Amino acid sequence: MSARIAVVAGAGGGLGRAVVSALRTANLRVVAIDRNEEALRVLGPEVHQIAADLSTPEGAKSALARVEAEVGAPSVLVNTIGVCTFGGVMTITPELLRQQVDLNVGAAIWLTQAVVPHMQQLGEGVIVHTAAEAGVEPTDGLTAYSVSKAATAHLTRVLDVELRPLGIRVNAVLPRLIATEANKAVLPPELLATASTPEAVAGAIALLVSEEAAAVHGALVPVNGW
pTM of the entire structure? Predict the structure, then answer.
């Protein structure tokens, strides 16, 4: 039996790299996609890499078509794409809101649209999106981010209703804070002290895509550190 093919979107980021490693350890064949080609090279030649911008419907559809042509039809999609900008409601600008929504919600929608036909071809599939604890619990100073992640969380529940009849499971993880290298560079140690490691979040994602979680649908899974 051939290995399941898993697409990791945003694979060049701190969480994305950890997810690639976790899924490979679970014997999935991983395709790593990121718009940063240099960041993808860090993953090594044994990981199939596609440089693409997934923030538009056209970009996502083209990238997933390449996955099928170059590797095969994917049965797993893990979306780790996201951006966080600090600021309360009085500092939001149209540009900032557009950025948060386009990357935190738009990419999840376009990736789902792009991958579902390939999963239908297989008759099964698993999708895991990355929302955030701030999307379900009020968080001061992260207004645009929180609202966009709330939309991602609710999108996950909507997708469960729409895609479960097609044999596709959809869930999301809700990290509080992840101790990626990027976050370590800008956040104080006292805040990072209770953050989850990228590997811990990746472990939760690996469980959600596994057969052990076959009965888990539409779940919003907290991954909130220590």
Answer: 0.95
Q: How far apart are CA 33 and CA 79, in angstroms?
A: 10
Q: Alpha-carbon distance 11 to 155, whole Å?
A: 21
The dihedral of CA 132, 138, 140, 142: what is its sign?
positive
At residue 1 the predicted structure's pLDDT band, cuts being 50, 70 and 90, is: low
Contacts of 219 (CB under 8 A, 6+ apart): 171, 172, 208
3-class SS letters over 6-18: EEEECCCCHHHHH
> pLDDT tens for residues 145-154?
999 999 999 9
- Give yes or no for a contact between 132 and 175, defined as CB atoms under 8 angstroms apart: yes
Query: Given the DSSP bridges, would you call strands 5-9 and 76-79 parallel, antiparallel or unpaired?
Result: parallel
Distance in angstroms (rounded) separating the CA atoms of residues 134 and 126: 24
Non-local (6+) Cβ contacts of 161 within 8 A are 218
List all residues 6 or more positions away from 20 whose beta carbon is below 8 Å from its beta carbon. 8, 11, 30, 32, 43, 47
Q: Which two tokens stand for residue 165?
A: 């009849």
